[in-house]
Amino acid sequence: MVILPLAIIGIVALAFGFTAWKAKAIEMEFPNTGELIDVGGFRLNSLHVPKPPGADLPAVVFIHGASGNLRDQETAFRRALDGRAEMLFVDRPGHGYSERGGSENGFPDGQADAIARLMEKRGIGKAVIAGHSFGGAIAASFALFHPEKTAGLLLLSPATHPWPGGVDWYYDIAAKPWIGWLFTRLFSLPAGLMLMEKATRAVFHPNPRPEKYLQEGAPALVLRPENFRSNAVDCVNLNAYLRRTALRYREIGAPTVIVTGDSDAIVSAEIHSHGFANAVAGSELVVIRHLGHKPDYMATDVVIAAIEKLAGLPRDLEAAAHMAEARLMPQAEDAPPELDLSIEKT
């Protein structure tokens, strides 16, 4: 009679021990490459590339998506913009190596406020605010609530509008105060390790995932318990936040470009990208055929052209998109993703 409870206790202890050990191992494999700066009661982590001599572009602030960290956007853009612009790659509150801060950071406007304060600490007055996926909701909120700091708005496969339904069940569990604490220390890390290969390939589908993405983008950082919980809370809160915020997008006056793919299985281009383009007067929507959820990696040249256009340079984004389509078509995979990671759950 006593053996079963003791066995359960032993299994739980092993799971806790494995999670603590593996989380530390992940940190050793992917150490912090940024700098923690106090932004008002908590520290935000970022990698700052100072303005180079002869820069021909404004500063650019890059905001990563769900389950991400600053390495994701740094890998995509730092080399491409080297010598041309000041760059700020940010670990969103509770992600990567940033501290979470207060409950306001469970919502895009709170995170946008934190990034605005970080820009002040870094001496950046105005910048092109670039957000990918979930980062698009934060970038849109930044442009809405901090227009004086927004030189331009660039959204990449963004999540910006409410959708029918909710989010994945494991986010609902992980976001809960007590059960979520246990869940992230017993199940989410080992399960995430088993699914990492398929999950990251599904995010890029139908395009091939870059060979070195698991190392250079460091997606494993999100599997650490506190990161996973922060990510879950963000996702659980997003839909309700967008219901009350999306109606205000028409107030955004910054020059705006949205880049999305017609084969995005993660975030509906019709709901979000098209919806945002319809809401923001003067915005330009660029839809690239054969492109999934990662224009930052698979159509980097189009994104750079969009930054140049936001800087006032003459650029034909449709022509750039057509060139990307020709390159992507032979790479597109016919098989559907093995995991359904879509934000919109019904």
Automatic annotation (TrEMBL):
Record-annotated membrane-spanning stretches: 6-23
Keywords: Membrane, Transmembrane, Transmembrane helix
Domain AB hydrolase-1 residues, every copy: 58-293
Molecular functions per Gene Ontology: catalytic activity
SUPFAM superfamilies, sorted: alpha/beta-Hydrolases (SSF53474)
Highest taxon listed in the record's lineage: Bacteria
InterPro entries: AB_hydrolase_1, AB_hydrolase_fold, Carboxylesterase_BioH, Epox_hydrolase-like
Pfam family, one: Abhydrolase_1
Record protein name field: Pimeloyl-ACP methyl ester carboxylesterase
Natural source organism: Xaviernesmea oryzae
